[in-house]
Structures are given as structure tokens and as C-alpha cells.
Amino acid sequence: MTQVTQRSARRTSSDTEPMVLAFDVVVTRVQQLGANFRRITFGGAGLEAFGVAGDTLDLRIKVIIPSAGRPCPDIASLMRRDDAGSWYQLWLGMDAEERGAMRTYTVRNSRCRGATPEIDVDFVLHLDDDGRGGPAAEWAAAARPGDAVCVIGPNAAAAQCATAGAYGGGEGRPGLAQHVLLAGAETAVPAISSILESLPEHIGGHAFLEVPDARDFQDIATRSSVTVTWLSRGEAVHGEALDAAVRDAVRVPGWVSLAGPGGAQGGTEPEDVDIDGTILWETPQRLEAAVVQSTVNPERPPGTQPFYAWIAGEAAVVRGLRRYLVRDVGVDRKQVAFMGYWRKGRAELS
Ligand SMILES: Cc1cc2nc3c(=O)[nH]c(=O)nc-3n(C[C@H](O)[C@H](O)[C@H](O)COP(=O)(O)OP(=O)(O)OC[C@H]3O[C@@H](n4cnc5c(N)ncnc54)[C@H](O)[C@@H]3O)c2cc1C
Fold it and tell me: CB of 298 closer than 6 A to ligand 1?
């Protein structure tokens, strides 16, 4: 990893450490996890500076996939440039072949404090019969030890500052909840697995994971009492099994105690999200930051409620579940993180 100077990336409010660093890493291991998942382990001495305070949960990173036959762009040097308004704008301004593709992934495991710092990322191989997919899926399918990419992620030194948590790369915060609902399809499996691994014994609830094939089912270690249910999609429509499982677990009526006052009598229609034009990303933290008046309940701030839900996957599927939980069940929006991880028929917005 190249060192990042003080005037580079986003900074903590104390202005001592950049929150985000660019890490030049190489593939050290490739492991096929099931029919459609590949675990790629990235290593590099610079990763000793990677990390957040506490569990990684659903920690997201950006991975820069180089164009075929091209080296990875030098993001650290963009971050160092004195004239840099933003490294991201500078990267966008590069020739398309030279800049490669930027995609969002979850850190499945992080072992950055040892002699050989590493992170694992589980890539879904969403490929057609000819082996074609997006740049990230195609890259992952062909990845071999020694291949180089750039990862943009949290600076461990910043995480130790008073402003820890400011990286904002994760949403999974059950707070004081006793009962959780975790739901997602394959791209959310790494995040849900990590969240489950972190949950203490006293937390119960359900985790639903829809994957393309029963060969994609994985073992997840959790101390919690959460019931983990794997759903095999087979020939069904993407998200159909997940949607049905959530509706069955969170029924109307019967949800009063967990949904809170007003629950199970129905809620209000949430404003629609144009998933073709924007990213569906509604989380308790975002709502709180935006102070959406209709959702503010001073007696029930986020993180203090008995129920917490985390839902991620294809945007249309997540939008349908948001409507069901908010409008039909009456769940307080500050109890749920709804996240469109990708959009059918559309490449990730860079
Ligand atoms: C916070 C966050 C965390 C994520 N974590 C992970 C993770 O750990 N592992 C992971 O595999 N993905 C993860 N994703 C999803 C991943 O970023 C997208 O799937 C991304 O679009 C893949 O890039 P690509 O270059 O392969 O495809 P793109 O170039 O973005 O898309 C090309 C085509 O493929 C389609 N497509 C994209 N993803 C899928 C899919 N999963 N299934 C079917 N079709 C698809 C698009 O609709 C488009 O038509 C995460 C996304 C977010 C926002």
C-alpha cells in the first residue's frame, strides 16, 4: 500500500487521519465455496493499516477491477494529489480503459493484525452460459494468486480516533434489539454471515438467505438463537422465495409486540423509490441524519428498540419488502435497514 498523505481522502473531524485509504493488494488464495460463490483472499503488507473498531459486520469496500491486460490504476497517487478536489472525480476523469471498474463488496473476514494481513471477499459469480457477466464477476471467475487489484477501505488508525465509526461503511447495527430479521439473496450472504457471527446469545429471530442453488448453502457459526434458513431459488424468479419467507415470518396480524405501537394495524405508505434512477438505501442512520420528520419518535430512538431488521439484495425485491414491512405490517422505518445491493439489468453506478 502506498502511504496516503494528510490532504488526501475523506478525513476524520479531528483532521489527523484520512478515514479511507487505497490498498494495493494481490490475490493470495482462491476458494470455490459453492456453485456460485468464490472466496478471494487479498493480501499485502499495507493491509495492516486496514480496519474498523470492532466487528466488521457488513463492512463494505470498493474494489477497483483493472481492465483486461491493464495495470490497476494508482488510486493512492490520486488521493495524494495536491490539486485533488476528490480522488473519485479524478478517477472518473481517467480514460475508461485505464481506470477499470469500481464495484462494492463486503469484507467477509479480516485478519489484518497478524504477520500476513489478509481480507476475504466472497464474490457471487453471476455469469451467463457463455461465462459473461459484469467486470467484477468475470474477473472473480478467472482470478488467480498474484492478480492485483486496488481496494478502497477504512483506515484502522482513524477507527481508533474519537470519531471512530465515521467511515460509515456498514449498516448492521442491531443496538439493543432482542429480535432480528436478516434477509437477503446471494450478494448479501457475506454480510448476513458476518452479522450472525457477531450476535450474542440472547438475540433471537430469523435469517433468510436465498441463493441460486442448494450447493450454495454454507455453514454459519453463530452464538445467537437466530434461526437460519437457506432458500434455494432453482428456476423460480429472483427474490420470490425470500419475499414469501419474510411475509410468512412477519405476519399481519401477529406482529404487535415486535413492531411496536401501531404495528400490525398497518403503517403509512412509504414514499416510492425510483430504483431505475437512484440507489435504494434507507437505513436508520440515514433517516436519523436526514431527520425525516414523519419517522422521528423521540421516545424510540434507533438502536433502542426490541426489533431490528436488515434487508439487502436486488433493488426491486428490497423495495417490495420495504413496502410490506412499513405499510402493511407497520414496522417503524427506524428499525430497518433496506439496501438495494444491485439492480437487475443495470451495471453498478460508478
Ligand atoms: C454494500 C454492498 C455490498 C455488496 N457485497 C457483495 C458481496 O460481498 N459479494 C457480491 O458478490 N456482491 C456484493 N455486492 C453486489 C455487487 O456490488 C454487484 O452485484 C455488482 O453489480 C457486481 O458487479 P459486476 O461488475 O459483476 O456487475 P455489473 O457490471 O455491476 O452489472 C452487469 C450486469 O449484471 C447484473 N448483476 C449485477 N449483480 C448481479 C447479481 N448478483 N446477480 C445477477 N445479476 C447481477 C446487473 O444487473 C447488470 O445487468 C454488494 C453491493 C453493495 C452495494
Answer: no
Residue 20 CA, distance from chain mean position: 16
Task: Provide the pLDDT for residue 207.
Answer: 98
- Report the atom number in ligand 1 closest to the C-alpha of 60: 1
Q: How many CB atoms lie within 10 A of CB 65?
A: 21
The answer to whether 18 and 9 are in contact (CB under 8 A) is yes
DSSP 8-state code for residue 18: B
How many Å lie between the centroid of ligand 1 and the Cα of residue 64?
A: 13
**Inter-axis angle of helices 315-323 and 240-249, to 10 degrees?**
20
- Domains in the chain, please, with CATH? 20-159 (2.40.30.10), 179-342 (3.40.50.80)
Q: Which of 208, 219, 179, 165 is nearest to 311 (CA)?
A: 208
Q: Closest Cα to atom 38, ligand 1: which residue?
A: 342
Q: What pLDDT, on a 0 to 100 scale, did the predictor assign at position 302? A: 58
- With a 6 Å cutoff on the Cβ, whether 345 touches ligand 1 is yes
- Does 126 sit in the ligand 1 pocket, CB within 6 Å? yes
Helices (H), 126-253: 135-142, 156-159, 189-198, 240-249
For ligand 1, the distance from its centroid to the CA atom of residue 212, given in whole angstroms, is 14
- Enumerate residue ranges in the chain where pLDDT < 50: 1-8, 12-14, 164-165, 256-257, 259, 263-264, 292-293
**Is residue 195 within 8 Å of residue 310, measured between CB atoms?**
yes
Output the nine-digit C-alpha cell for 300. Answer: 424510540
- Does any ligand 1 atom lie closer than 6 A to the CB of residue 60? yes
User: 11 CA to middle of ligand 1, Å?
Assistant: 28
- 119 ligand 1 Cβ < 6 A: no
Q: What is the pLDDT of residue 172?
A: 77
60 closest CA partner among 342, 347, 343: 342
